[in-house]
TrEMBL record:
Gene3D superfamilies cross-referenced by the UniProt entry: 2.40.50.100, 3.30.700.40, 3.40.50.20, ATP-grasp fold, A domain, ATP-grasp fold, B domain
Residues annotated as domain Biotin carboxylation: 1-447
SMART domains: Biotin_carb_C
Signal peptide: none
Cofactor: biotin
Keywords: ATP-binding, Biotin, Ligase, Nucleotide-binding
SUPFAM superfamilies named among the record's database cross-references: Glutathione synthetase ATP-binding domain-like, PreATP-grasp domain, Rudiment single hybrid motif, Single hybrid motif
Species this chain originates from: Candidatus Litorirhabdus singularis
Protein name: Acetyl/propionyl/methylcrotonyl-CoA carboxylase subunit alpha
All residue ranges annotated as the Lipoyl-binding domain in the record: 591-667
Length: 670
């Protein structure tokens, strides 16, 4: 076995490979760009070598720099992860020339599968079933169009050199063909430097089912069950599961054997994945073979109990396959959800930003988090916006799915937009639970999947208000503790007021609107609580404790724990039934002062002017009442923040005012 390996990658896959290497007693070398100097994968590695600026083209994609790093550190082998150099035949060849083991298949196998059309030719010879289509060398538009017409619309145009869903276009009728062909060719040329196309019959309701294969250098080859990756957006996977549900046993074997046949046809070695489209009638067709470890490999690990990276290392070191086909066992069910910095509502547009707050579910035997980031890290424009993979196991699909939903509520990120709510909607949706799987799933159920998280607004606002009120108490307490006379009544955080209830007005933004809440603090034998009143007239009694960012709340007898994170003025509250966001709208206090640092006093909320208590132009003392207004059936007194005088009132008794409106002009005493 190797003593030291280099991982030519970053992020979660680099960290994941290191976990296994360290468990096996293998030292690890990381490589990093300028953007990743303090990244998790660098911290985890035993050694790390800087290989250039942030853009991947100048760092992670530079074969010579990666090989030089291996030579400098004495690493005997390179694990390429996925993406970057993992399917680059030139890199594989360069490793061999430098006498470094490439932890992956032989160069020839990468080359054979590098072109989608060449791969189809090889597979046709090996009698692996193919999607009907044209994959020839003649690229004249007229011939491509004729091929489309012969097989019948709809068809799919695919970049021969493609990957990641780029250069792929559906064509539904002959009159669209020329336009779509030109677009696909342009996209392919700019992404892959080659505009060759293949034309395939477009299956309208297929499942994406792929087989994990492993071959060794002694002629052995087996398959390690299948994965269903049908839930996709823009032809890219979102949630994967193993095994594929509702797959007849005979079909499972047929697909497994076809996959091993495909691998043998190219003298494969190491970990590979053969992707198939499974049609509604049970026919399956070879789509492509990925000659590397897949992003979604953990679901296979969860159901087989095997470590696929360990297998890769053993096989690359020349060992035979650890198991025979008959010894492979599949136990239970596993899901992987890809957590992305992206906005599902904006057609899954990638997002960037700082992970201002990050809390992940606790890892157990049945919950696994593969990630390469920590709180405070940045999701930058330079790399893939995947933040993490959340993987769960259950005795059956239903249990695993329930665990996935719960773990998603425990995955808490603030600071940038993520797809977590979308994934939660997906995991809890009736059609996904009912195994209505095909590659059109997300598009078909878009409205259902994009709906905002459920939750009673007033219930959630009650929790938000409680948090703000307890936080104010905490701040007041802290300043009291610092003062010379902590027992001074001026620092009291209790609700005591002479002859009047202690009322506070809150204005919170929530779900895109401003909500006004009045809070009356009441003291009782077990501490204090707040009676909240909403504009609807509804009331809610809330109490609780705030410990760091953990809020233990009791609203009308319903107790729950939440974590509240603040980032850039936006609060995110995470509870067992999902997350919600809120912010304090200005102004946020009902005890508005005249002329504070913010200038003239403003209405704390929408309301009506009741009385003007000062005479225009006359001197008043600090704290003198100036104006009374009424909102939500309660009165608020606006007082002078210092000695001075009112030079104008902007409203008369009986008039309505909007929240935040300036009420009067106040001149403090010089
Ligand atoms: P890429 O390498 O760009 O990821 P693939 O060939 O792996 O492209 O295909 C990606 C996805 O595109 C598949 O999972 C499937 O959803 C869809 N797809 C590919 N070929 C077809 C086809 N002939 N009919 C219908 N959908 C297809």
């Amino acid at each position: 076995m190797f003593k030291k390996i280099l991982i030519a990658n970053r992020g979660e896959i680099a960290c994941r490979v290191m976990r296994t290497a360290h468990r096996l007693g293998i030292a690890t070398v990381a490589v990093y760009s300028d953007a990743d100097a303090n990244a998790l994968h660098v911290t985890m590695a035993d050694e790390a070598v800087h290989i250039g600026p942030a853009p991947a083209r100048e760092s992670y994609l530079c074969a010579d720099k990666v090989i030089a790093a291996a030579q400098r550190t004495g690493a005997e082998a390179i694990h390429p992860g996925y993406g970057f150099l993992s399917e680059n035949a030139d890199f594989c060849r360069a490793c061999a020339q430098a006498n470094i083991v490439f932890i992956g298949p032989p160069t020839a196998a990468i080359e054979a599968m590098g072109s989608k059309s060449a791969a189809k030719t090889i597979m046709a010879k090996a009698q692996v079933p193919l999607v009907p289509g044209y994959h020839g060398d003649d690229q004249s538009p007229a011939l491509l169009k004729q091929a489309a017409e012969d097989m019948g619309y709809p068809v799919l145009l695919k970049a021969v050199a493609g990957g990641g869903g780029k250069g792929m276009r559906q064509v539904w009728s002959a009159d669209q063909f020329d336009e779509e062909l030109a677009a696909a060719q342009r996209e392919s040329l700019s992404s892959f430097g080659n505009s060759d196309m293949l034309v395939e019959k477009y299956l309208t309701q297929p499942r994406h089912v792929e087989i994990q294969v492993f071959c060794d250098s002694h002629g052995g080859g087996i398959y390690l069950a299948e994965r269903d990756c049908s839930v996709q957006r823009r032809h890219q996977k979102v949630i994967e599961e193993a095994p594929a549900p509702n797959l007849p046993a005979s079909l499972r074997v047929a697909m497994g054997e076809a996959a091993v046949q495909a691998a043998s046809a190219i003298d494969y070695c190491g970990a590979g994945t053969v992707e198939f489209l499974l049609d509604t009638d049970g026919s399956f067709y070879f789509m492509e073979m990925n000659t590397r470890l897949q992003v979604e490999h953990p679901v296979t690990e969860m159901v087989t109990g095997l470590d696929l990276v360990e297998w890769q290392l053993r096989i690359a070191a020349g060992e035979p396959l650890p198991l025979q086909q008959a010894q492979v066992q599949v136990n239970g069910h596993a899901f992987e959800a890809r957590i992305y910095a992206e906005d599902p509502a904006q057609d899954f547009m990638p997002a960037t930003g700082l992970l201002g707050f990050l809390q992940t579910p606790v890892e157990t035997d049945v919950v696994r988090v593969d990630t390469g980031v920590r709180q405070g890290d940045e999701v930058s424009i330079y790399y893939d916006p995947m933040i993490a993979k959340l993987i769960v196991w259950g005795e059956n699909r239903q249990q695993a799915l329930q665990r996935l939903a719960l773990a998603l509520t425990q995955y808490r990120i603030a600071g940038l937009t993520t797809n977590i709510d979308f994934l939660y909607n997906l995991a809890t949706s009736a059609p996904f639970q009912a195994i209505e799987l095909d590659t059109g799933f997300i598009e078909r159920h878009q409205t259902l999947l994009l709906q905002p998280p459920a939750g009673d607004p007033e219930e959630q606002l009650g929790l938000a208000a409680l948090y703000i009120l307890l936080d104010r108490e905490r701040v007041a307490q802290a300043s009291a503790n610092q003062s010379a006379d902590p027992s001074s009544p001026w620092h009291s955080t209790g609700g005591w007021r002479m002859n009047e209830p202690h009322l506070q007005a809150l204005a919170l933004t929530y779900a895109g609107e401003t909500w006004l809440i009045s809070a009356e603090q009441v003291r009782n034998s077990s501490g204090s609580s707040y009676n909240l009143s909403f504009e609807s007239g509804n009331r809610l009694n809330v109490s609780g404790q705030l410990n760091g960012d953990e809020l233990s709340a009791n609203s009308d007898g319903f107790k729950q724990k939440l974590v509240v994170a603040e980032h850039d003025g936006l609060f995110s509250a995470y509870g067992s039934s999902g997350a919600f966001q809120f912010a304090t709208a200005l102004p946020d206090t009902g005890e508005a002062d005249a002329g504070g640092p913010g200038g003239n006093p403003r209405a704390p909320m929408n309301g009506r002017i009741v009385a003007l208590l000062a005479e225009v132009g006359s001197a008043v003392a600090a704290d003198a009442p100036l104006l009374v207004m009424e909102a939500m059936k309660m009165e608020y007194t606006i007082r002078a923040s210092s000695a001075g005088s009112v030079t104008a009132f902007y409203y008369q008794p009986g008039e309505l005012v909007d929240g935040a409106a300036e009420l009067l002009n106040f001149e403090p005493e010089a």
